[in-house]
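Predict structure. Input: Ig-like domain-containing protein, 306 residues.
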Amino acid sequence: MTTKAPTFTQPLQSVVALEGSAATFEAHVSGSPVPEVSWFRDGQVISAATLPGVQISFSDGRAKLVIPAVTADNSGRYSIQATNRSGQATSTVELLVTAETAPPNFTQRLQSMTIRQGKQVRLDVRVTGIPTPVVKFYRDGAEIQSSLDFQISQEGDLYSLIIAEAYPEDSGTYSVNATNSVGRATSTAELLVQGEEEVVPAKKTKTIVSTAQISQTRQARIEKKIEAHFDARSLTTVEMSIEGATGQQLPHKAPPRMPPKPTSKSPTPPISAAKVQMARQQSPSPIRQSLSPVRHVRAPTPSPVR
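Output follows.
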């Protein structure tokens, strides 16, 4: 059998009680085997003999001590000790008995918050009052019981609700009620838990869309410039090719009936040859192929004049 030393899952809480009213101490303890529980006041064991009228109980891990009608003599330090063969644990608090009264008052109220799914949530309040107020947490009007998922704790006048791992279904209106024999006070706040599927805030969405539009506009401008460049270049090439082709057709015409000049051996005019050469250098390959047969054509030698 596995053994486990005693642990207080919910320790004692200090109490301020009005004289003549009841004072209650309660703690939750776990351990294996089940611990034995003892109560002390200022180091002395509490029993019916030392504290007349006291009520002590322990069941299902819940230990409770009740003083039905406190007096100023009951003020002091109260402790609970849980013991088994694996170890020991102790929780100690104060009891203050006073004739004065004060209604509950929040010195620190709940604060609304928005968090991401899976994060821890801590809702804190500070509340005072005489006698000590009974503090309870609620979500959408339903009381929250302390558990592993929703832990309620107290340290002095600080009361906390801790949600170990929040999910969207934990969103809602949370409130704290503090009540004593003199009055009651409430503090309320909103909790919003955003899931992973939540939409990106509008401001970021607008920025992303604007950036995409700018990129598309710039791309369109570049494409138009490229198209215009190639259109102009193609037009120039075609014009020059046509002009060059026109010059190449001259050798097919009948030459004039006059003797050739002794200084010129080529029957093709120099201007036409230059234009053909320019067309070959700048025109695309299809035009060069269409003009290549023309290069081998020579004009017929004119007959001598009789």
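Residues 202-251+268-292 form one domain.
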